[in-house]
Amino acid sequence: MDLHRHLDDELSSLRDRVLLLGGEAEQALERAMFSLNERYSDVARQVLDHDDQVDRLEVEIDRQCIDIIALRQPAARDLRFVISVAKMAPVLERIADHACNIARTAIDLNNEPELKSVLDLSRMAEHALSMLRASLDAFTSSDAIAAREIIQSDSEINDLYNHTFHRLIELMVTEPATATRDARLLFVAKHLERIGDYVTDICELTVYMAEAAFIKHSIKS
Amino acid sequence: MTLTLNRDLNRDLRSAPSVVKTKVAVRNLDFFYGRVQALHNISIEIPERIVMAFIGPSGCGKSTFLRTLNRMNDVIPGTRVSGHVSIDDHDIYAPGTDVVELRRRVGMVFQKSNPFPKSIFDNVAYGLRINRVTRSSSELADRVEEALKDAALWNEVKDRLKTSALSLSGGQQQRLCIARALAIRPEVLLMDEPASALDPIATSKIEELIFDLKKQYTIVIVTHNMQQAARVSDTTAFFLLGKLIEVNATEKMFTAPNEKLTEDYITGRFG
Asked: Are residues B269 and A4, on separate chains, in Cβ contact within 8 Å?
């Protein structure tokens, strides 16, 4: 029984680490958007400075997953949990990378005159953050139903992205002087849209973990 | 390589179940040691030419069940069996069944290698001689060679067939026992923890051998080593307290079993 408790401890520690990584990704995105909206470059620099820590955390999770697989040979739900975490960690790290890219854009734009507010960009960010938080909650509680609902809500981000895309293209045409800066915002929108896709990946992994069902690429298992 | 092939076959089996013939069929089997019921209402079908692993905690009845498949329990006084076990649709417990012939068709390899204190050649030839299977010494030699090759032992012993089997290593002795079982060309091979006393290299050889043998034989293996069950078998059956809890494709069993009891056992949370 002690050995089993040891495995439980390791799985619990792995869960804590991946949630920590999720929290870091969430905070990075929140801060990057804050720095963009509030034109506060110091916060953007904090996001960039913190990224090494996020990378280290991802590597630690990788190592821990490999150690558990090699030494404990988990099976069934334990195996699905470890595999899900191993695949989730790089996704979370990429979300943090997108946040860094937004932070870099924020620093660049903050050095230039303020642009007209593109309202949907903030709504996209709020939705992406809300999806990310909900996906981590669904993972924590192994809630496949919630995970599926979050996947459905990704279409909202996609719709907002399309709207933002067209709005920014319009602005580029009507106000060519700000086109370069608008193009940067277009990249921000794309980063947020990709984050929505990554959250979908997290939710698909949660469904796999909870139900052993593969739902990615609309494949039914 | 072995694992990939194994998994491919699993997929084939599931995608085309209709082409798989049932070799062993068990229905409502109960087994008693005196008044103690060791097996409860076991029903299972074992398809031809696959490896089926029996797993479960000590005392769960998996070895007892294995021995019901060639009536090896008959030799234990006070035992009683009810229900049906058929091989190729013939009830092996029907009155008048030739038990010697049954055990020729359903060979067995035990946990501890048990070579006779005879030469390597004579160990393999033993079953052929007592069953009077061969008509000439050259045919006997051919069959011994064939069995040793099937057991992946020929290259290691071909130059010393007359030396004592007891001079072989533990792993070689176990493969010799497998060769001895194969010499009489059984259709089903029962293996009761065949690698539990072997080191990892010898174990690996036995596992590779099992994989090769399933091209010709239906193999049922009892193992306490769940990784071994995962590595060598196409289907896995989980036993608990004399009951068959779940039978499933091995990859399903080890990633997403249907039964909570199975999950608790294979994740080590049992009890």
From this structure: yes
CB proximity list for B127: less than 8 A, separation 6 or greater: B104, B133, B180, B181, B183, B184
Mutation choice for B interface testing from A6, A7, A11, A77 by most B CBs within 10 A: A77
Mean pLDDT of B61-69: 96
The pLDDT confidence band at residue A219, using thresholds 50, 70 and 90, is: low
Backbone angles phi, psi at A115, to 5 degrees: -90, 165
Whole-number CA gyration radius for chain B: 18
Residues A221/A214, Cβ–Cβ less than 8 Å: yes
CB contact under 8 A, B267 and A76: yes
- B267 to A212: CB separation less than 8 angstroms, yes or no: no
Q: A40-46, long-range: CB within 8 Å, 24+ apart, which pairs?
A: A40/A110, A41/A106, A41/A107, A41/A110, A41/A111, A43/A103, A44/A103, A44/A104, A44/A106, A44/A107, A44/A110, A45/A103, A45/A107
β-strand pairing of B22-33 with B36-47: antiparallel
> Token pair for residue B127?
């079953």
Contact: A212, B256; criterion CB under 8 Å: yes
For residues B23 and B88, the answer to whether their CB atoms sit within 8 Å is yes
Region A92-113: mean pLDDT is 96
Structure tokens, B35: 């008044």
| CA–CA gap between residue B235 and residue B256 (Å, rounded) | 13
Distance CA A85, CA A62 (A): 9
ipTM of model? 0.77
pTM: 0.82
CB B230 within 8 A of CB B213: no
Read off the amino acid at residue B71.
R
Of B227, B254, B271, the CB nearest to A76: B254
| Cβ-nearest to B266 among A1, A3, A75 | A75
Distance from CA of B9 to the nearest CA of A (A): 18
What tokens were used for B267?
Answer: 């994740």
Distance CA A210, CA A198 (A): 18
Token pair listed for B94: 């029907």
CB-based contact A3 B227, cutoff 8 Å: no
Contact residues, chain A, for B271 at CB < 8 Å: 1
CA torsion A58-A61-A63-A64 (nearest 10°) is: 170
